[in-house]
Amino acid sequence: MLSNIKHATLLVLCLLVWSVSRADNLSLLIQKADSLQKQQSKEALPVMHRCLKLIEKEDAVDTDRVQVYKLLSAHFLKHELLDSAFAYCQLRLKWAQKGDLTDDIILSKTDLGEIHGKRGNYKKAFELLSEARELCESTETPAFQANILTNQAFLYYSFEKKGKSIQLLKEALDIYQSEKDTLNMSYLNNNLGILYKHQSNYDSTLFFLQQSYFLAGQVHDTLGMASACNNMGSTLSMFGDFHNAEKYLLKSLRYYQVLNQEELSLYSNLGRVYKEMGNSGKSIRYLNKALAQAYKQAEPKKILSLLKEVSDYYREIEDWQNALYYLDEYHQYKEQVYQKELPEIIDRIQAEADLKLKEKTIQLLTEKNNYQALYLKNKNGLIAVLIILLVAIIFLGNSLYARSRVESKRRELLMEQRLLRSQMNPHFFFNTLTSIQSFVIRNEARLAGKYIAKFARLMREILENSTRSQISMNKEISAMENYLSLQQMRMNNSFDYHIHVADAINVHAIEIPPMLIQPFIENAIAHGLNHLTDRKGILNIFFTINEDLLQVVVRDNGIGREKAAEINGEWRSNHKSLGSKITHERLKLLTNDKRKRSKLIIRDLYDVNRHAAGTEVELQLVFDKCR
């Protein structure tokens, strides 16, 4: 019996010693991982994974769990791996709340706010950062406040409020300077340099970037030095100082190679500098590296920009095959991006409206408090109640107005998306490329080159115009003429066209919605003039001013709508083309917006014998004067 008790006691002591040693091992591993991460060592992540296995196998204390999740989320966030960073940050917040660890709750909410901001979920980002800032008031840790200010600056920058962003970054920089936090001082100086660069204040840009490089060097922050050199090279290239720009960019490249990292912006900067220096081989090589990195990081805007840039560069050096290939890639990818980004654009508009409402609410609450103080001072309760009611009515009206604006903007964006998809008939693309191929087969290189140049110019005009709600009448007519000349070449000059503009119209002083007229010109050619056999086609387009409306008439001498529908096998008594339907909806939106009347009228034309003699489309459009 006594022997059994001794054995049991010895076993308990061994278990206690084992558990303490395991806890010590975990603590030591966490410290090692933290140290390796600060040194930017590749060994940091494997050590973190060992820590993760230990806390999953054992009943680790909350503080250890939180510390491990903190290291992992920070690592993935630094390398822009947002999904992994988000998952570990959520775990960190969960265990911090369970253990009532206020500091870690603040830091977790701050990091989650940063991740949501980078994902484009601005509303959630503002909410989390506001919650973190409120909790921060109960602590005495200035670095927390600086971190939150930095992330809020990023959000304001996303809303194109660069002045507010600079103000917040300078407030954060003052805090880090008082705390002598050199690493974060370097980071903020780099960001301030970038912001001043976007404001074209290049003296301030170079000052802050040089400060960033110097501070990063003090703490041996290789990544910070690489980023500062990259930004200095980009800035110097704007001055035309390509020699020094190349020097800084190559220096940045060496730093990134030490870190075994690839940087998209560095490759694109090198590509542009070598392009300006006339080194086409290096330029294309680095631009293609940038493009590959953009695809790898799934950066839609950068992919589109680089595809367009590479296509334009090949066009400049008259490499038509590659120019056309990258242009085609650009258009296909842009359509995909537009489909995916529309919900994010709407969320962003909603977040911006919510932010404005929140700021207005704070202002109104401040005014309410002032009025309450006035009430207590003058003891005039009735006046105070009336004023508070008035403030509440104003707030409610602003809220309803803001939501109405968001809904209106959403409808406009949806309409623009449908317009973009219907602007150019896929058959036109096919016919155009077929025509180019036929020119090449017949060894008509000059005609093929001319056709490609016109086609590229038309695509550029259409894509540029479709991103704006209003364009000058001169630009609309220019795109129209380019389109008509292409169709005329493709159809072997089987029709003539004439554009008539009334003398009273100044085409440079009038703005109209883009691409309203084009669908009817395309219909006139494809369904009216294309089937003519007994006469040459004629297309007339008239522009006149009727009171306060721009009157546009598209008239063809084609076979008429009824005969065209029979040929196409699609006659229905209530048929309405997609272009007409979209134009009707756009006109309805314009009517609601301008409080004026816009019209679309389609007439069938007949000769004296009541035979079909063509079609006439009349558009009465609201227009603005150019600013």
Give an overview of the whole structure.
The chain has 627 residues and is an alpha+beta fold. The protein is 74% helix and 8% strand. The chain has 23 helices and eight strands. It has a five-stranded mixed β-sheet with strand order 2-4-5-7-6. β6 (599-606) and β7 (612-622) form a beta hairpin. α1 (2-38) packs antiparallel against α2 (44-57), α7 (142-158) runs antiparallel to α8 and α9 packs parallel to α11 (222-238). It is globular and about 100 Å long. The termini are far apart. Residues 12-24 and 570-576 have low confidence and may be disordered.
| Mean pLDDT reading | 76
Helix content: over 70%
> What is the terminal separation in angstroms?
102 Å
**Overall 3D form:** globular
* Share in β-strands: 5-15%
Largest sheet: 5 strands, mixed
